[in-house]
């Protein structure tokens, strides 16, 4: 079953053509990695999936709902499609536990005892249950990003979007965040769409690799063929060659 479908999607910022003729289908349970040079449209594409960016033409179906239809309930979409950003956006005046409990309390009206148990289980999953009573400012960037992931999981979404989740972190903090993402990819049936420059993560857990440049999808391939074979697109081959030599 398809979780996300792009049909001839076009996106503009004024005269700037950000997304061009996007046609993609992402199946439920897939882990798909989006790579490409800066400004290629990766983050824009990601943000259209939960309605943070609108599209001008085409059709975008998410969990059976047409995002271009004015009748579509975007709050319902966002319940089922979580997002983890580059920056953690935690509530500075709330404890770690409260950050994770807040959305389920407000959106799902989950009973408090059940909400707390689920939140604590998620903090355990990201190996931060011992930080539950601390404030975000008391945690490192890597720890805060793992809390942001737990917070996104708290609504029990069907899909989770990651927009370069390690790009703002110091190098020694990256592995802890990637390990949490790998566990989600391997142990859950959630659909993951990940914008990242972490090729080791893509090699290990992606089902597919999508290469974008200039607002277009130039390559859509299995990780095995993309990394071990030769991408059919010359721009993708050049990009991959630069990554491998660094």
From TrEMBL:
Entry keyword annotation includes Nucleotide-binding: yes
Source superkingdom: Bacteria
UniProt xrefs under InterPro entries: AAA+_ATPase, ABC_ATPase_HisP-typ, ABC_transporter-like_ATP-bd, ABC_transporter-like_CS, MetN_ABC_transporter-like, P-loop_NTPase
Gene3D superfamilies in UniProt: P-loop containing nucleotide triphosphate hydrolases
Pfam families: ABC_tran
GO MF, one annotated term: ATP hydrolysis activity
Keywords: ATP-binding, Nucleotide-binding, Transport
ABC transporter domain: residues covered: 4-239
Family statement: Belongs to the ABC transporter superfamily.
The protein's name in its UniProt record: Phosphate ABC transporter ATP-binding protein
Biological source species: Secundilactobacillus kimchicus JCM 15530
Lineage summary: Bacteria, Bacillati, Bacillota, Bacilli, Lactobacillales
């Amino acid at each position: 079953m398809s979780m996300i479908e792009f049909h001839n999607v076009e996106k503009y910022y004024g005269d700037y053509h950000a997304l061009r003729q996007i046609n993609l289908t992402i199946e439920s349970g897939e882990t798909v990695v989006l790579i490409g040079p800066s400004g290629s449209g990766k983050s824009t594409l990601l943000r259209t999936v939960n309605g943070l960016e609108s599209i001008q033409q085409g059709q975008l179906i998410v969990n059976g709902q047409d995002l271009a239809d004015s009748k579509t309930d975007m709050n319902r979409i966002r319940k089922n499609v979580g997002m983890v950003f580059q920056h953690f956006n935690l509530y500075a005046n709330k404890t770690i536990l409260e950050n994770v409990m807040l959305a389920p309390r407000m959106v799902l009206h989950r009973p408090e005892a059940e909400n707390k148990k689920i939140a604590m289980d998620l903090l355990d999953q990201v190996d931060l249950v011992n930080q539950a009573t601390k404030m975000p400012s008391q945690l490192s960037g890597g720890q805060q990003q793992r809390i942001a992931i737990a917070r996104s999981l708290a609504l029990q979404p069907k899909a989770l979007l990651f927009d370069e989740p390690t790009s703002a972190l110091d190098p020694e903090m990256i592995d802890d965040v990637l390990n949490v993402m790998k566990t989600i990819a391997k142990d859950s049936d959630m659909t993951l769409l990940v914008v990242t420059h972490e090729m080791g993560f893509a090699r290990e857990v992606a089902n597919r690799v999508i290469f974008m440049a200039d607002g277009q999808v130039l390559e859509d391939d299995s990780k095995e063929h993309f990394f071990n074979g030769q991408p059919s697109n010359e721009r993708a081959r050049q990009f991959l060659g630069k990554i491998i030599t660094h």
